[in-house]
Amino acid sequence: MSQLELVKLIIGKGNNYSALATAHYLILHNKITVEFKSDLNQPETFIEAFPQIKGSLSVTKFLARSYSKQQLYGYSLTIADFAVWGALKGCSGFQKLVNGNKEVGTHLRRWYDFVSSLDFVQKIVEEPKPGKKGKKAGDAPIADQGSFDIGLKDAKYGEVVTRFPPEPSGYLHIGHIKAALLNDYFAKHYGGKLLLRFDDTNPTKEKLEFQEAIQCDLTRMNIQWHKLSHSSDHFDKVYELALQLIKAGKAFVDDTEQQIMRDERMAGINSKNRDMSVEETLKRFQEMKDGTERGLRSCLRARIDMQAKNKTLCDPVIYRCNVEVPHIRTGTKWKMYPTYDFVCPVIDSIEGVTHALRTNEYRDRNVQYDWFLRALNLRYVNVWDFSRINFVYTLLSKRKLTWFVDQKLVSGWDDPRFPTIRGILRRGMTVDALRNYMVLIMHINNSLIKNFTKLMQGASQKDLMMGWEKIWALNKKVIDPISGRYCAINREKIVKVKLTTDLAPYTETKPLHKKNPDVGEKQTTYSSELYLEWDDAVTLEVDEEVTLMDWGNAIVRKIEWLNDSFIGLIHMELNLDGDFKKTKKKITWLSRRSPNKKDDHDLVKLRLHDYDYLITKKKLEEGDELKDFITKETEFVVEAFGDANLKSLKVGTIIQLERKGYYIVDEAYDHSKPDAGMKLICIPDGKESNMMSKAAEVVDTKVAPDTKTATQSKKEVSSSNSKTPSTNSKGGKNSIVDTDDFVHSIGMYRVNNLLGHIPPFDQSKISSMYKKDPLMDSSLVLHKVGKVETDTSKETDTSKPSKPSVKETAVVESSEGGEGKKKSKNAKPEAVVAKEGSVISKLDLVVGKIVDVKKHPDADSLYVEQIDVGEEKPREILSGLVKYMSEKEMKDKLVIVLKNLKPVAMRGIKSYGMVMCSSSDDHTKVEFLIPPNGSQPGDKVYFEGHEGEPEAQLNPKKKIFETVQVDFKTGQDLVAYWKDIPFRTKKGVIKTKSLKDAIIK
User: Looking at the record, which segments are called Disordered (predicted)?
Assistant: First the structure.
């Protein structure tokens, strides 16, 4: 059954009982708790079963949350909505109640009517049923399956006007582009207009260059606006409306200091100037306009409701003075400027906007938006909320991005590591992929469900923290069919090949894309002298048959190894009649000779750039210091040779380097500077392994090597089976030998292209599970990381060398004054135990007593506690426990404190530790861990068999606490455990009050 047929079945096209069963399955699949225990087709049983629906979790909990939330599951429509709606639509009992205007519940009725009103739902319901005259259901496609309405209120075709109002104070990033594309989508969808308006109300931040850059970026995104305007175009009108508010007694001038004003608004305290007369307010407002000394200290505030729970209504500022710099358009005409909160609804109404799309961070301000329109008797504007989009390891804060630019950690606002539009386009993102991802107007598999789910990504009301995998994978689908294929060979330790047949250099015409001839053609050069990449050459065996890509098979006849473990030359014999299907290795190659040059190749030098995220943490939390999470190395360069066809490419051309990946030309070949070569930037392909943070991977490996399973470790050793210690130019995710010393000696930056640098094993501490006997004897001894020495006491036969084995080097111990010793198979496992103990023992856990507790003045969810941990004075520790415990319940309690965390500021107050608690899976119940009877502040907590000295302060980059915390839990006996080892002090074990098998945080 197709998904379209399934939807039709769900909404009443088939047997209703089957629809209910299908609905029930889909609801469970979507984790919605609704059960239909009766056959709802019968009016009598429906009326009996109706309370189950009316009082179900889905309806009462999800629908009754607030008037603005229409859907069953979260904040966006899902298949669960269609399932329940279809069951009710096909249920005669429910229809009888609805048609008779009987009570079914306000929220249920509103939700049912909302789903019923959707255009595409109505079209499916109205389709002729099979067996009736006319077209059969399903014969004709639903009109424009990617173009159905998703709920713009009062939207009329041809009359919708949206607007995109960026502040010209920076470059657009991927978060802005979601807003721009959604506004563009709805304007086009309803045959309306999109307005571009620059909100230039803060002259301190604004620059003309940003206006030009924003227009350029929107044009690159194929976003066309009907009209361009500026907020400053309406300054005179906005000023008149401000006077109107004053004369109506709805605004006053206030010179209260900013911090005092902020505190008063939060506390609901009236300003000393709130009762200022209209005459005095007009006089003081004129002083603001003139820029007098008193006027510059003042602001104009709307007089709304200081007792409102929604603090945006507590007399917000609507005009403030700014004489720091002249305005970029009005110069020094104005000394005061309207705030965004005031100017936005006013100009939206004046310019004819019908639907204002705003991110849901402004949701609390929607009532304020409406108040200004009503107070000024302006035309009503519909406000439509959508979620902000955030990406892991990505900063969208303009202030933080500016810091990176100022610190010269990036090359500029178009740096490929930046989430700006020009940054991600420079890295190889396509406009089509961005549009498809954000607005998703393309059809996917012609499926209604997939289209709907896809569009809901654009319309979701819930803030999203997205991985980069999906958007880059979508980009790959766009570029793969149109990217020409070229060849490149890493220059590091490049290997020469000599064919047994002497061939004069010649060229043949080949397609750039074997599956798409429209991409074009290239000239491939052939000769008897070739280059191979080290990674390929080192795997070859004498008499092995391999395939040279775009040529044919060849047989390895001889490999000449040099004393320094390099390959001097490989002799190969062409076997063009060989079957390429039977060879295991397909190898890229380049000709060392060119028909255009007598003794040299015609290759181009390449610099292949790859990047890591700028920060090492997926999401910075409140209180995190940006500087603590900066990735040290974020740009990696590999030197390579490329085929001569690359010389004709222009900047911005996207290509595929065969067996390497997709790249975009960042610096084209300059024939006047051939040695400068070309710069290519690696385009992410969306594969999860390639999208991992390289820096975070290294940190995790350093901190907790003991957390790897035996299976993982075996894979790491066995997968390293190449012919030499890891001098792999790609690095490879299983490399276990550091080559930094070698790389430095040859003046090149070595890079692990996929997972970054993996630190070497500490041979003195690893267990026998990391050991594996070599397959053959070797004269190599690994003295230190990255340096390989050869025992020259034996003669070296260059035709048949003793080839170094990574399997062997992986198990050779550091030879300090003697030869390496293998660990016996019966080696004791104490090393692993000691390693685990050393990690958990780094935590400084102690008993503490809460001597004082009060609520944080600026954070409703936080307590500020004074906790005695046996030191000279109590520690100040912040905990998010407000909704779980009262201050009275916490006072004088003995608790467990982790005290060697790095101090973190939370809303202006530093926290010097963490209180350990058990928590239920759904986080609805939280309990303190309880020290044993007789405990005193300062008593040490330890784990038997893992004692040790804790670190003075945990390094947050090493994620030590995060590593061990995943194994914290309570048992059926209420004892707190790390793995299977109890938390304990010298006086006994530590427990929780009632939560069994609970997590400990």
Answer: 703-737, 787-830
